Amino acid sequence: MKTGSEYIESLRRLKTKVYAFGEQVTDLVDNPLFRPHINAAAVTYDMAHDPVTEDLVTAVSHLTGKRISRFTHIHQSTEDLVKKVKMLRMIARRTGTCFQRCVGFDGLNALYSVTYEMDQNLGTNYHERFKEYLLYVQDTDIMVAGSMTDPKGDRSLRPSQQADPDLYVHVVEKNEKGIVLRGAKAHQTGIVNSHEMLIMPTTAMTAEDARYAVACAIPVDAPGVIHVFGRQTNDSRKNGQIDQGNARYGIVGGEALTVLENVFVPWERVFMCGEWQFAGTLVERFASYHRQNYGGCKGGVSDVIIGATALIADYNGVAKASHVRDKLTEMIHLTETLYAGSIACSAEGRPTPSGAYFVDPLLANITKLNVTRFIYEICRLSHDIAGGFIATLPSEQDLRCPEVGPYVEKYFRGVASVPTEDRIRIARLIENMTGGTALAESMHGAGSPQAQRVMIMRQGNLEQKKKLARILAGIPEKE
Ligand SMILES: Cc1cc2nc3c(=O)[nH]c(=O)nc-3n(C[C@H](O)[C@H](O)[C@H](O)COP(=O)(O)OP(=O)(O)OC[C@H]3O[C@@H](n4cnc5c(N)ncnc54)[C@H](O)[C@@H]3O)c2cc1C
Questions:
Q1: Which residues form the HpaB/PvcC/4-BUDH C-terminal domain (predicted)?
Q2: pLDDT by residue (tens digit) across 57-97?
Q3: DSSP assignment of 393-440, as one string?
Q4: CA-based, 20 to 30 A from 105: which of 34, 43, 144, 202?
């Protein structure tokens, strides 16, 4: 298994083509725009070597019996599923942000069981091929981005109906060596600091969409792959420290638009090519694993927000006010409710025909739907307690300025015993963790709320519930 610094050094050897602010990036690893995200991902590598955390962050490979990073492991039990959630919360408590490796982790698990089922049903031979790839991932401990979301153009049209066929990734050529892909994947978490990307379809397909039903693994620096880095709300603060809020690890996962300009993929790395009947299964499998995560990672991030909010209450001299204590209680209640959902969908997991374990999809979707609301409420309560200065604070440069620094120092002080700089640091942490990109991620990451509602209705078994009511009401069943 790689250490954090080995992971960081391995990125220097890649030729990843990244653009940001209209220019090609030549110093990705040391550039302050990317480095916080790289640091956050590096924590997942370092924690695998720490005796205190290794039980959660590592696992034993069912393929080789070797100890591997849990981020490359295929869940073999409900205990594995539960440990995944505990691991995500533990790492998020340390980073206070997204550490990016769960998307690829979920892609690996989804493809493992779905390739098995595809082979059983259609007589294809993807599962063995996928296992070879998995061995490679486990042996090299590479970071794999999960690439599902297509740009999608007109959302009312199917992939094959779009005016521009590239709005969904698709196969433009097949030959004896492999396939050639065109299109793009949007909102790609951690991709510029990953080694490979796992392409998956973003929606269920019909026979007309067959060339869009494609899953495969591609190095992020393969010829024809171009990444355009997304803007974040704290971009222009990246050269300072305090104003970033979380200077070491950043906010959210460093998302990018990844363009595929006629990218060649050898057959050894192709895990679905035209089997449109299984695109929907793959999307649902991936989405449920991914929705499982949110009570873990967002639980850990919320722990930091709660801590920051309690500190600001101390610094403002309001910690003993009953409404403040009530609001902090509510924040803890919401956080633990999210966590409980993630633990529950894991504990209720079941084996798939491949032997790999899958979460309870209904509970996983409930958890993520709660995340789309509760995180906003947690952040709202944090803003309420913190006060308006989290939005109106002068900059770090003003704090350091000989002319106005003393005024900032004097007039931004809360209780006399707490240095103004500490109060400002916590306010900036709250500002960055509770606004902009961080909030939208809770809404749309792992799918927008309606995607969860569709799954909840499908899994909710209304017919069985109607039957329960009929029995108690004494209504005989119809023939
Ligand atoms: C911070 C962040 C990180 C992410 N990381 C990743 C990642 O690593 N990998 C990855 O693959 N994806 C990632 N995503 C993408 C995420 O899965 C998508 O944002 C999500 O699926 C929603 O897609 P969209 O953003 O295109 O929004 P849209 O699909 O445009 O949704 C906007 C609204 O339109 C509605 N809508 C959409 N289509 C229809 C329709 N046909 N009929 C009716 N209503 C419709 C939705 O329900 C929603 O209310 C990330 C997103 C964010 C914000």
A1: 279-473
A2: 999 999 999 999 999 999 999 999 999 999 999 999 999 99
A3: PPPHHHHH-TTTHHHHHHHT--STTS-HHHHHHHHHHHHHHSSHHHHH
A4: 34
Please measure the distance between the N-terminal and C-terminal CA atoms of the chain and give it in whole angstroms. 60
Give pLDDT tens digits for 179-217: 999 999 999 999 999 999 999 999 999 999 999 999 999
Catalytic residue among 126, 133, 168, 294: 294
Lookup: tokens for 7: 């992971």
Instruction: Answer yes or no: is the C-beta of 445 below 6 A from any ligand 1 atom.
Output: yes
Mutate to test the pocket of ligand 1, among 199, 376, 448, 450 (most ligand atoms within 8 A of CB): 448
CA distances from 411 to 107, 118, 408, 414 (A): 50, 65, 5, 8
Q: Any catalytic annotation for residue 401?
A: no
189, 309, 352, 437: which is the annotated catalytic residue? Answer: 189
Q: Is the C-alpha dihedral spanning 270, 275, 281, 287 positive or negative?
A: positive
